[in-house]
Amino acid sequence: MKTRFIIALFAIAFTLSLAHSQNPVYTDLDSGSKFSFVTYGGIGYAVVDNDNQPKYNLNANTADFLINYRIGKRYGIATGIGFDRLSGNAFNAGGNFYHERGTLRIPVLLSVNYNIAEKVRLMANIGLYGKTVLKDEYSFVGGNVDDIYEGWNFGFQSGIGLAYNFYSKMSLGIMFSNQADFTRLDSDQNSGINDEQKIAGLNTVGLLFGINF
């Protein structure tokens, strides 16, 4: 549901950008270099989907650091790195546990960036990512189990937000973002667990900051 909502908002942004192309409103952020730096982070929740165990929810904190290359006035291609931290309590066949995970994400995104007022702009992106686990720890009553899941998996991410140009080429705003894996991580057979896992949905809201070079 959240993914469809973000896609719908992105489609609206794309349609509005075409509708405004006849009478665009530009600010200082539209001039100069084609490169810009955008960072945003948020808090929310994630749904962990296992093959052989129940689904469970975790708290999520995310941060993205992107370099955007502008194509024309409104569109661009962005890439960089993202970090996700998941944590929370859950239950499976082994009993109650606390799960903490850190991941590194490399996205490749199509971006849309246009002004809806003199100093206010809509910013959106949509694309794919590759992701790997940096830290993975399950804490049970009897002890901890580390690094059960390993390797790389891939997924889809999107975001949409509003930014205010508060000083020259700098902007600050709010961003809604969504992630969903479409491939699964395999468990380490040496851990004694035979399972596959993916993040079925990760939804956050937070602040964004942008600089045009």
Number of domains: 1
Main sheet specs: 8 strands, antiparallel, barrel
Give helix and strand order, one letter per element, not per position. Answer: HEEEEEEEEEEE
Strand order of the largest sheet: 1-2-3-4-5-8-9-11
In the CATH scheme, the class would be Mainly Beta
What is the fold-level CATH name, i.e. the topology?
Answer: Porin
Rounded to an integer in angstroms, the radius of gyration calculated over CA atoms is: 19 Å
CATH architecture: Beta Barrel
Number of extended strands: 11
Shape: elongated
**Number of helical regions:** 1
Uncertain stretches of 5 or more adjacent residues: 8-29
Range of strand content: over 45%
The helix fraction, in percent, is under 10%
Keywords: Signal
Organism: Kordia algicida OT-1
Protein name: Outer membrane protein beta-barrel domain-containing protein
Signal peptide: 1-21
Molecular structure report:
- Residues 1-21 form the signal peptide.
- It comes from Kordia algicida OT-1.
- This is Outer membrane protein beta-barrel domain-containing protein.
- With 213 residues, the chain is mainly β.
- The protein has one helix at residues 2-19, and strands spanning 35-50, 56-71, 75-92, 95-115, 120-140, 143-146, 149-150, 152-167, 170-181, 185-187, 196-212.
- The chain has an 8-stranded antiparallel β-barrel with strand order 1-2-3-4-5-8-9-11.
- The radius of gyration is 19 Å and the shape is elongated.
